[in-house]
Specification:
Elements lengths: L1 H13 L3 H10 L13 H5 L4 H25 L4 H13 L12 H11 L1 H18 L2 H18 L6 H14 L1 H8 L10
Helix pairs in contact: 1-4, 1-5, 2-4, 4-5, 4-6, 5-6, 6-7, 7-8, 8-9
Length: 192
């Protein structure tokens, strides 16, 4: 019963579409009609309002951090199930006909809540890639790859399967970006 309750609650928390909500409240616009149509932080930045973009990033991270830290201390055995459900909630929110964000900010929150070093490895990988190429999508793909590689280097195989699943899911959510990157059609991201 615990696994079902925790799974549903974490999915519902993960499915809160902050990019959609903030854009609707403060800009009176539907974020799905802007840029890529995605509800995540990168597309929120495309509204032209950096505050909305960074607020979306913050809340998409926090909505993972708070429940996972709670689960960590109360239902340790369900930690990775809860993490996956939060991510799936963000990517497939019931409120928006299961069309959500790409999950990167939420994944960052998951990583920091699980282990601060995972979060730092992701962020450093993302920043280095972004500094070199200026593509948010490419940075996210490289950073997602860095976690399983980090675990392999340290010979930490205990939960590597979870991070391989997350790596595959992030690649799945970025499949259109990958096509555009291959065709040199991907647009660069301005983060400041």
């Amino acid at each position: 019963m615990d696994i079902l309750i925790v799974g549903i609650i974490c999915y519902l928390i993960g499915s809160i579409p902050f990019g959609y909500i903030l854009t609707k409240i403060f800009l009176k616009k539907d974020i799905r009609d802007i840029g890529s149509g995605n509800i995540g932080a990168t597309n929120a930045l495309r509204t032209g309002n950096k505050t909305i973009g960074y607020a979306t990033l913050f809340f998409d991270i926090i909505k993972a951090v708070i429940p996972i830290i709670y689960i960590k201390f109360n239902f340790t055995e369900l930690l990775y199930i809860a993490s996956l459900c939060i991510f799936l909630g963000h990517v497939f929110p019931v409120w928006l006909k299961f069309r959500g964000g790409k999950g990167v900010a939420t994944y960052v929150g998951i990583l920091f809540a699980l282990n601060i070093y995972f979060g730092l490895v992701f962020i450093v990988s993302w920043l280095i890639t972004f500094a070199l190429f200026k593509f948010s999508s490419l940075s996210s793909l490289v950073a997602s790859t860095s976690i399983p590689i980090y675990l392999l280097i340290l010979s930490k195989f205990e939960h590597i399967f979870f991070f391989i699943i997350m790596f595959v899911l992030v690649f799945f959510t970025h499949r259109e970006n990958i096509k555009r990157l291959k065709n040199k059609e991907e647009s660069k991201t301005k983060i400041y």
